Amino acid sequence: MNPVPQPTDRRLSLILLFAVTLFTSASLMFVLQPLFGKILLPLLGGSPAVWNTCMVFYQSILFLGYLYAHTLSTRLGPGQQIVVHTAIILLSVLALPVGLPEQVTPPTESNPTFWLLSTLALAIGLPFFVLSTTAPLIQKWFAQIGHDSSHDPYFLYAASNTGSLLALLSYPFIVEPNIGLAAQQTDWSLGYAVLGVLIAACAALLWKNRNAAAPENTASTDKIPMLTQLHWLALALVPSSLLLGLTNFISTDIASVPLLWIIPLTVYLLSFIIVFSKWNDAIHPVMVRLQPIFLIPFIAYAFINPADLPYWAYLVLHVIAFFFAIMVCHGELAKLRPSTQHLTRYYLIMSFAGMLGGMFNTFVAPFIFNGIYEYPIMIVAALLLRPGLPLALNRRLLWQLLPPALLLVMGWALYASIGNLLDYFDAIAITLMVLTCGIFFFRNQPVTLALLAGVVIFLALGVHSLSSHTLYQERTFFGVLAVRESTLTDEQGQPETYHELFHGTTKHGAQRLAANLSTIPLTYYSRPGPMGQLFKAYDGVDQNWHIGIVGLGAGALACYAKPQQSWTLYEIDPLVVDIASNPLYFTYLSQCNKSAKMSVGDARLSLAQEPDHSFDLLVMDAFSSDAVPTHLLTEEAIKLYFQKLKPNGILAFHITNRHLLLKKVLSIHAEHLHLAALIEEFTPPDNQPLVVATDWVAMANQEHILEPLHTSQLGDWQKMPLYFDMNPWTDDFTNIVRIWK
Fold first, then answer.
1. Domain for residue 413, yes or no?
2. Fewer beta carbons within 10 angstroms: which end of the chain, N or C?
C-alpha cells in the first residue's frame, strides 16, 4: 500500500498559495474566453454561434487538460509530474501574446465551425490547455503535501470557481469598457507569467513532500460502479447543454457581445461555488422543492402563451429556470463526489460531459433540428435527473410513464381533429396551463414530472408551429430562418395571403403575392418609409448610381433598382440567398433586379476588397434576428464605408431595434468624424398594409449632399441628437451597457 502523508501541517499560507493559484488560473481562463470570442466575432458577422462554437472548443480543451492531469497524477511520481508540466508550460509561452494568426479568412460557402475551431487551436490552444490542467492537478498536488485539509481538497474548487465568476463579471463592466483589446491581450499575457510563478511554488511544495506522495496505483483502489460514473456524466452534461441553449436565446435578439454571454456562464459558475461549499447539504433540498414551483410560470410564459413581456422579464424568467435546473443537477453531482483517490477521474468525467453537452448543441442539434429544440429537450432532461429517478426498468417506472404517454396521444389526436387551430387557440392555451399546474403534483416522481412537462412543451410548440403556417424552416450557423404564410385584409376589405421571412424571432421582410402588388417594397423598406423617401428624393440624379446593399433579407430593396444602375448585394448566410432567390417564397429579385451581383461573406471583409470611391449609395441593413453585429458599427467600419463611397456618396443605416439605442453610436461617430447625419424615426400612416415603424440614419461627407432629403418634405428627417457620455465605438472598444434602451 502506498504511503500517505500524515496531516500534521496546519499552515494557512499553504491553503492560500494553492487557492490563489487556482483563483488566478480560473480568472485568466474566464477572461480569455470573452476576450478571444470578441476578437473572432467580426470575422463571422457577429453571429451568436461564434460564442457557442468557442465554448465547445473551451470545453474540449478542458477535457483534454483534465485527462492530462488524471494521467499525469496517476501514472507518474511527483518529480516526473513537475518535469513534464514545466515543459508544457514553457512550450505554451511560444503562443504569447495571444492573438489571431495573420491572414486568417473564414470560408464563405461552407459552415465555418471547423475553421473557427482550428483557428482557436492555433491561436490559444496551448495556453488554454495549461489553464485547463490547473484545477484538477493543483488540487491533486494539495492532496499529497500532508496538510491538515489534504484529505478533502474539494473546497479549493470553490476558489477556482470564484476566480472564474469574478473574472466573468469584471469583463463586461470593468475590463471591456475601460481597456482596449490590444491592451487586454498584453495584460493577459503578463497574468499568465504570474500564474507560471505560482504553479512553480506549488510544485516546490510537492517536491518537498515527494517521498510521502508516491503515485497512486489505481488498480488497487476501490472501483467506482459504472452506473455511478454514468450518473456523474448525465448530471454534468445537461447543465452544459442548457448553458449554450440559454446563451443562444439571450444573444439572438440584442447583440452577440460578452455582456450577454456571461449571464448564463455566471449563473453556471455560481452553482458550482454553492454546491461545493459547506452549505450544499442545507441548500440542495430547498432547490429541489422550489424547482417544480417555478416550473409552472416558466412553461406558461416561455412556451404556452408568450405574452408581450419586456425583454428583461423573459430574460429573468429563463435565467431563474436555468438556475434551478443546474442547481439540482450540480447539487446531486456534489453529493456523489468520491474520495480523493478518484478526484481526477471525477473531474475528468465532469469535463467530458461538459464537452459532450457543447458538442451536442454545436454539431448535432443544428443537423437534426431545424429550430432551437435542444433547449426544451434539456429542460426536460434536467427534470429527469431530480432525486428519486428509478435507475432500473420496473413496474414503478412503467406507472410513471403512463400519464405522459396518455397526454401525448390525446393531445396529438385533438390537434389532428381540429381544422383551424387559431380558432381554438385561447382554449388550447388555457388547457395547457391547467395541465402545467397539474404537473406540480408529480414533483416526487421525476419521470412523470419531466415527461409531462415535455409533452406540454411539445404540444405548445406544435400549436404555435401549426398556427404560424410555416412553409419552410431551416437552421444554419447564423441562425434559424423561416418562411411563413400569413393573411392580411387588403384595401377592399378582402383577405389576402402574403409571405414573411423570419430570422430568429424577428421579421426580415414580407411580400404580397398578387401580380400587381408583388413588386411593392414592404415592412422596413416601404415607399412611404425612409428608404422610399431617400430613393424618391434623389430620383432625378441616381440613374447611373452604383449601389451596395449589406443584408439581403427577402430582397425588397431590389425593387428600387433602375435599368442603368449597378447593384451589389452582400449577404453572409448562403441560405438567405437561396430563400430570396426561390420564386416559391419571394420574387423581388427575379422580378426587379435579375442582374444584381451577389457577394457571400461578411460584408465588412467583402467591402474591404472593393475599389475605393466606387459606390454612390451604401445601405447597411445587416441584422442577426434583432441584433446589428457590433463590428459593423465601429469607427473603423464607418471609415471603411466612406472610403468605398464616392465623395458625394450616401451611407444609409438601418437601426430599428427593440433593445438598443443605436442612433447614439452613429451620432457620436458623425460628430467625431465630422460627418453630416440625418435621422428619421418613422411612424407609418394608418391603413397601409405591411408598412411598419422603422428608424434609419443617412450620413454623408457634407451637409449639402443630404439637403435634397432634408428639404424634400417627404418625411421627418432631423439632425442627429448629440451625446457626450460615451466614447466612440472602435474595433478595440465597444460598450453595450451605455446604449441599452
1. yes
2. N
In this structure, what C-alpha cell is assigned to residue 322?
Answer: 436555468
The whole-model pTM stands at 0.75
pLDDT for residue 217 is more than 50: no
- The rounded Cα 178 to chain-centroid distance in angstroms is 23
Judgement on whether residues 109 and 183 belong to the same structural domain of the protein: yes
Range with top average pLDDT, 14-18, 413-417, 605-609: 605-609
Centre a 10 Å sphere on the Cβ of residue 422 and count the other Cβ atoms it contains. Answer: 14
Q: Which three cell numbers stand for residue 457?
A: 412543451
The DSSP bridge partners found for residue 619 are 549, 652
Q: Is residue 111, in this structure, part of any structural domain at all?
A: yes
3-state class of 621 per DSSP? coil
Specify whether the CB–CB gap between 70 and 136 falls below 8 A: yes
For residue 224, the domain's CATH number is: 1.20.1250
Judge if the upstream peptide bond of residue 97 is cis by omega within 30 degrees of 0.
Answer: yes
Map residue 718 onto helix, strand or coil.
Answer: strand
What would the grid cell of residue 555 be?
Answer: 430582397
**447 and 538 housed in the same domain:** no
Give tens-digit pLDDT for 37-80.
Answer: 778 877 766 566 777 788 888 888 988 988 898 888 888 888 88
Same domain, 102 and 205: yes
3-state secondary structure of 508: strand
Q: Is residue 230 part of a domain?
A: yes
- Domain boundary (447, 467, 487) is at 467
Tell me, yes or no, whether 575 and 708 share the same domain.
yes
Which runs of E-coded beta strand occur in 102-260? Answer: none
Distance (Å, rounded) from C-alpha 232 to C-alpha 224?
11
Q: Where are the beta strands (DSSP E) in 385-505?
A: 470-476, 479-489, 495-503
Spatial CB neighbours of 322, under 8 Å, sequence gap ≥ 6:
242, 243, 246, 264, 267
389: helix, strand or coil: coil
Helix 155-170 to helix 258-275 angle (10° resolution) is: 160
DSSP per-residue letters across 54-86: HHHHHHHHHHHHHHHHHHHHHHS-HHHHHHHHH
Q: Which amino acid is at 550?
A: V
Q: What is the pLDDT of residue 218?
A: 44
Q: Are residues 215 and 135 in the same domain?
A: yes
H or E element at residue 178: helix 176-178
Sign of CA dihedral 563, 565, 566, 571: negative
- Using alpha carbons only, give the angle 239, 241, 247 rounded to the nearest 5 degrees: 100
Q: Looking at residue 5, what is its pLDDT?
A: 46
Cell reading at 546: 452604383
DSSP-derived pairing of the beta strands 615-620 and 546-550? parallel
User: Which residues lie below 8 Å from residue 690, measured CB to CB, with a gap of 6+?
Assistant: 488, 498, 510, 512, 522, 523, 526
**What is the C-alpha separation between 570 and 580, in angstroms, rounded?**
13
- Evaluate whether residue 677 is within a structural domain: yes
Residue with C-alpha cell 424618391?
A: 536
In this structure, which long-range contacts are made by residues 413-422, counting pairs with CB atoms below 8 Å and at least 24 apart in sequence? 415/459, 415/462, 415/463, 415/466, 421/463, 421/466, 421/467, 422/467
Q: How far is 699 from 736, CA to CA, in rounded Å? A: 22
Report the percent of the chain where pLDDT is more than 70.
Answer: 87
Q: Is the pLDDT of residue 392 over 70?
A: no
Which amino acid does the sequence have at 196?
A: G
**What's the CATH number where 604 sits?**
3.40.50.150
Indicate whether 447 and 537 sit together in one domain: no
Q: Into how many domains does the chain fold?
A: 3
| Domain extent for 600 | 522-739
Identify which of 321, 173, 168 has the alpha carbon closest to the alpha carbon of residue 249: 321
Residues 544 and 605 in one domain: yes
SS3 assignment, position 472: strand
Domain identity same for 63 and 212: yes
Nearest Cα residue to 319 out of 270, 248, 264: 264
Alpha carbon 128 to chain centroid distance?
21
Q: At what angle do helices 226-252 and 374-384 cross, to 10 degrees?
A: 140
Whether residue 648 contacts residue 707, with contact meaning beta carbons closer than 8 Å, is answered with: no
